Fold this protein.
Amino acid sequence: MAAAAAAAAVGGPQPPQPELPAPGLAVDKAATAAHLKAALSRPDNRAGAEELQALLERVLSAERPLTAAADGEEAAAAGGGGGPGAAEEEALEWCKCLLAGGGGYDEFCAAVRAYDPAALCGLVWTANFVAYRCRTCGISPCMSLCAECFHQGDHTGHDFNMFRSQAGGACDCGDSNVMRESGFCKRHQIKSSSNIPCVPKDLLMMSEFVLPRFIFCLIQYLREGYNEPAADVPSEKDLNKVLQLLEPQISFLEDLTKMGGAMRSVLTQVLTNQQNYKDLTSGLGENACAKKSHEKYLIALKSSGLTYPEDKLVYGIQEPSAGTSTLAVQGFAGATGTLGQLDSSDEEDQDGSQGLGKRKRVKLSSSTKDQSIMDVLKHKSFLEELLFWTIKYEFPQKMVTFLLNMLPDQEYKVAFTKTFVQHYAFIMKTLKKSHESDTMSNRIVHISVQLFSNEELARQVTEECQLLDIMVTVLLYMMESCLIKSELQDEENSLHVVVNCGEALLKNNTYWPLVSDFINILSHQSVAKRFLEDHGLLVTWMNFVSFFQGMNLNKRELNEHVEFESQTYYAAFAAELEACAQPMWGLLSHCKVRETQEYTRNVVRYCLEALQDWFDAINFVDEPAPNQVTFHLPLHRYYAMFLSKAVKCQELDLDSVLPDQEMLMKLMIHPLQIQASLAEIHSNMWVRNGLQIKGQAMTYVQSHFCNSMIDPDIYLLQVCASRLDPDYFISSVFERFKVVDLLTMASQHQNTVLDAEHERSMLEGALTFLVILLSLRLHLGMSDDEILRAEMVAQLCMNDRTHSSLLDLISNPNPKSGIIPGSYSFESVLSAVADFKAPVFEPGGSMQQGMYTPKAEVWDQEFDPVMVILRTVYRRDVQSAMDRYTAFLKQSGKFPGNPWPPYKKRTPLHPSYKGLMRLLHCKTLHIVLFTLLYKILMDHQNLSEHVLCMVLYLIELGLENSAEEESDEETSVCGPERCHDSWFPGSNLVSNMRHFINYVRVRVPETAPEVKRDSLASTSSDSLSSLQNSGTAQVFSLVAERRKKFQEIINRSSSEANQVVRPKTSSKWSAPGSAPQLTTAILEIKESILSLLIKLHHKLSGKQNSYYPPWLDDIEILIQPEIPKYNHGDGITAVERILLKAALQSRMNKRIIEEICRKVTPPVPPKKITAAEKKTLDKEERRQKARERQQKLLAEFASRQKSFMETAMDVDSPENDIPMEITTAEPQVSEAVYDCVICGQSGPSSEDRPTGLVVLLQASSVLGQCRDNIDPKKLPITEEEQIYPWDTCAAVHDVRLSLLQRYFKDSSCLLAVSIGWEGGVYVQTCGHTLHIDCHKSYMESLRNDQVLQGFSVDKGEFTCPLCRQFANSVLPCYPGSNVESNLWQRPSNKSIQDLIKEVEELQGRPGAFPSETNLSKEMESVMKDIKNTTQKKYRDYSKTPGSPDNDFLFMYSVARTNLELELIHRGGNLCSGGASTAGKRSCLNQLFHVLALHMRLYSIDSEYNPWRKLTQLVEEENSQQGNEEQQPEVPVLYHDVTSLLLIQILMMPQPLRKDHFTCIVKVLFTLLYTQALVALSVKSNEEDRSAWKHTGALKKNTCDAEKSYEVLLSFVISELSKGKLYHEEGTQECAMVSPVAWSPESMEKYLQDFCLPFLRITSLLQHHLFGEDLPSCQEEEEFSVLSSCLGLLPTFYQTEHPFISASCLDWPVPAFDIISQWCLEINSFTERHAEQGKALLIQESRWKLPHLLQLPENYNTIFQYYHRKTCSVCTKVPKDPAVCLVCGTFVCLKGLCCKQQSYCECVLHSQNCGAGTGIFLLINASVIIIIRGHRFCLWGSVYLDAHGEEDRDLRRGKPLYICKERYKVLEQQWISHTFDHINKRWGPHYNGL
């Protein structure tokens, strides 16, 4: 030992240590520690310190564990042999002992905790932890609270949600930088530091000495364990091995942090003390091992600099030298480390000659190779090196947790943040190489979000450590590695580089931790301002953004379909959104006030520079390259959004930040290209590029992207349009959309750039785009609330929406900006525009969610089709909005027909954008509108209603926004000589509308009809030409106009501007590839826009002269123009509205309109019936006939379907009972006729071709769940509340059977009870029948049909061929008449004695199984099915396995189960009477036949037939003999009467006669009544009994003695007093006796209640066997009504005096004799077993209806209790906990831990608890899952949030409340066994749940 110690302590100078004992036992350790502590507390403690150092040196020698682990040697060093583990534990023990200074470690911990001054919670959690976020209390959007702090604080009414942590986090409670103090919990409400006592010096003295050594030891381990990998990829196995070894040490440190503030401050001192670090790391001396580890450390450090891919070292990290200016990308600190001097002074040399890409590449890579740049990280404290190793080991969870646990210490927080920033570049470098980049990203963000969410801290490191420079540079560095050459525009010579979206870096989103940190720090105003002020940074940032400009370029495939559809577009959209748009929104959120104008100017300036560079780099002049599109223009969007902000919030003059005209022209090209491409993609012109191009078009407008993509693009185009020449802009649009050639008056044209089938949709696209451009005001003057309202209305008009989907769809562009969706304005706007529709429940229908639907006035006034078109991802949504609008108009009676999209008034334009309206007042647009109106009027091809609609919309926009009132003096008629000169005199739409155009010269193909005639007078002799009629005059003029303007702008020469462009000159600009045989034709038009509109009105209305100016009748119209009748309507209304507006704007127009209407307008081309048309008419006629035939067939089919519906559904009309019940009681015997739903034939069921009912057999334990108390059990939500199944019906019956089996003969016991309370077989049918042979072939076809069904054909499952209800067997219908019962129902006059004899004889006849017919085979097979439906344990109760008694018991119990369940479906009583729904589709009749047939095979030995005991007096000696050698029979009074009834009936030959049935019921009632009396006597106390015995005895000799309950009761008591039944009461008595004092009324009620269940079941049985209806009644009179219905009450019975149950008795033999005989059996049993005897007599007969467990109001109570609860089987916390809603058992869903014989726990539980049906609530998802046999389905959730929505998987984490209606529906489905029918989506679970 000593030698080893000496060897270990070579490290330093070693003082003599005589007093140091050998470290063996804990006592020694404690003594040593105490001694050292004493030595150290002396004033001169040098000796003590040295002594301690030596001890630590020896105990913590770093050499030992890792070498031992690595080389596998036995480490027989000091501190115990036994391998590395032992040594480490020993070392830890020493440390604990030394820290405690000789005391106990636990006491020490407690002592330190007492001095915890921390007012912060700081609890650190890892992924999947459940935490809370309260937006009301949060200052930073990243704020989070642990569950405990959240529940301890008061957040009622706040906007909070629960969430599952993705990356881990820490609790912010108590941190006022991140959250408001009002939200702190009780524990962390600021404690003032005064009331916490000062920490005594000696308490933590040892820690200060021991910990530095311990941490150094840990660092040495980390150094040792790290091997610089060969291929720069650390092998994860090795790293994990090292970490596993260090687990205890790191856990020890973690425990120290949890001791509270006092210990944390000691740790902070140790970790940040530079002296300690220096001493320990430099004092290596001659220790070889330490040297080795130091070398490894140096090697690891080497790679920590940032090197570029070319391996030129660009910069290292050094200490900030004082006074360095923050230049652009200043390395991280040194002035020398800049990336090429990029400061703001070098603007001059940025001439256009040098290509940008080259320049950029040069700037980023040619850096000076100073020595200082080669420098790598330098560490000065333990903290820095610990973080370094944490990064090297890829952020092990334990280390991260330790580093974060220290954060509540303020001093540490600052030091750690600075260290983190210092290592930032290294972190990202490691991340880029990592394999597990996901896990690592999460851990990095786990740390950074704690540091950067704090504004104060972020500001500090930004100022002191150049955080912004570091981040921007690192981002650039990351993206540098995946750049490729851009192919946009000029593929060969492009110098622009873009990121390659296929790279892992982008595809896997590896950059997100960086971007997320960047966005996080930009959310702080102080930091963002620094960024916006720093020109160098802005230049670099724009450089970075330009990497994304034009990425993911699409090239249109023109020949064959693309082979491989790349999915890179996901990466591209995500990258632009996260890396460009999110930081942009962050910056914009700080540019809200006038004072921030300067920032905007900066951004705009550098953005424009970057754009100019970009245009230069791609060699862009004026035409975009054809067939290319990129959706990514982040530079354009930065520019647009900063412009918008400048005008909206900062009152900047727009023109001061706009570039020259030429730049504007360039700027508009690419956004416009995207708009045209969208139209092309929707016109299927890009179909060869695969589906992904559609995906891009959708993503571009999708709700999360639209704010950052399409909106800025449209806004930028609006700005360009408002500043450029309108004619130039309009012609550019039509040229981009490739429809210039279409805009001709000629009826035929050639389009060189577009196929004919695409023309129409491209024209629609172009017009729609113009409408959007001119009517959208999102950035042109709408306030935020107006925008929100418009967005919300658009979304609601498409479809009703749930609250959460609205929140999601109306996305807030910047989630970190602190404007929280769901804020006050969102809710107030929502309540203003929408009504809430609460969730509706149709049982059997789908579960609805709470929806919001637009209010009527919103449809009336605010529905805006333009906004809807802009926001729809799918075209069908526009249609959906229009359909809903149409429905609203019909419903409110505003408009009956098919309306057109309404014209909506716009918010006024901001003055800066007034120029936009010039587009509406330019000749080019007017020519286009005129041409289109003309073409539509002349029915040219490729025009649609949509085109007309948009044309009218544009005209109306122009009228609404006409610039100035034009003078009426202007001449209105234009001479013919000027017709080629110019189209329109001015540019104002109002005056141009009335301008007549007489002739147009067009270029047409020679084949065109125009060429054949000289003039085009409207002679309509040739109907063909008038059908397609067109021209080309201004076609080329459009292009010409555009080129001319462009030239003009470029050359700045205004001289050419005065020349009028004539159509003639335009021919030289015809498209190069156009066909040569064009010829010129002149068309006579003689129309103005007004006259065209009026003719259109005639055409649309189909009447001549249909337009009559409304102001001629009512001059008022011109005074108040807003007339509601014009708001909604179709095209006719639109034309009328426009004409009215035109008349309003100018008297001249008004006059001309009147004039036009006065002239009798020439007819629209008249109808002459030509041969071609005749053909079409014939066709019509033939079609009409075909249609009629079809109608007839359909009608026939419909009537058949209707009859099916009535039989199948619960239509409440008694006539429509299912086919097998013939409703009128005809006297003649007719056989029942069945329809086979497969072959469609009708006929009776016969022996050789039996018909069967489609049935579903399922095992059920619902009956077993009945309890005897009224309130349902609650789901346990605390440890105290547990549910015990002792009081369930199933448990009680089980106990009873096992009691009987203990004392009585087994075969007799099995006749005395029923089983099936658990696992009973329930049979239900849809009521449809089929031939059994048809069914077999149907099953065959299903088996061969390989479609994956939700059911398994091999298990016999199928769906009913008619109603598709789920089924799994066929129940044969017994042949014979359905009315035979009538013959048997005639009352016979036989005495009861005769009937009893007949019954006995009939039962005695053995039932022979009928001969081998098809029917009997089917009966056998269905019986087998019934048996196999339930598990063996639910069938076998006999002690001798396989005894026939088992089958016998099982069969009559099936009947019992079905009757009992039907009773429950009727609500537990028969008061409602009638044939209830259950009755209508009941198959009990058929089931009884099958059961009876099988029961008759077992004859009960007449000796034992209970019938004799009930109806005859047996001689004494017979019954008593042989008692000794075998167990006795069960006494009759212990028999269950209902079971006896079923046995008696099923033993009779079927069909049964009514009088036999009544006879059996009467006999059994006597037994039942006696049982009731016995039970009553046992329940009462001794005095009551003697009193009753006495009063009854007095009346014994009256005439009605046998029908008086008093007499009978006294007789029973006296008989039973002979035995020991009443004796041994003593202590037990209280439990049995009910405390009530008995009155005659209460006794009568007790007897009635005892007998009622039997009467109910019997009446049901009678109803099914004999088809008698059940009477309805009040609950009080149920007993009397049922007993008279069953024939127990004599008919002469008078109801005046109160009803007495005993009057129903009809004793077959003298009552007193038989009762004494029955009592004798009891007495002989109670001789030996009085206790059990008494227990068996009291049967609980009053079961309440079964219920599922009652759930708490708020879901959180369930969640908090169960989601951390450990499973009782495997004692782990399950990953997917679930709880059974029937019995409350807690189970592991899918957990392999609890798997038994390949069954997972939920499946197993569903078999044990519900015989195959399980209802589980999944705790982590709030949904309910149903297991039914081998299938399962997700049922939905019964917990909804405040807006009536489910929250599956708790994604939103809002508070959820129970929805009682849904829970009721669930319970109803459980009780009625209809899960299979109602829920549609079933799948197999393969026992894996």
Summary: The CA atoms of residues 1308 and 1504 lie 8 Å apart. DSSP finds 75 helices and 30 strands in the chain. The two ends are 58 Å apart (CA to CA).
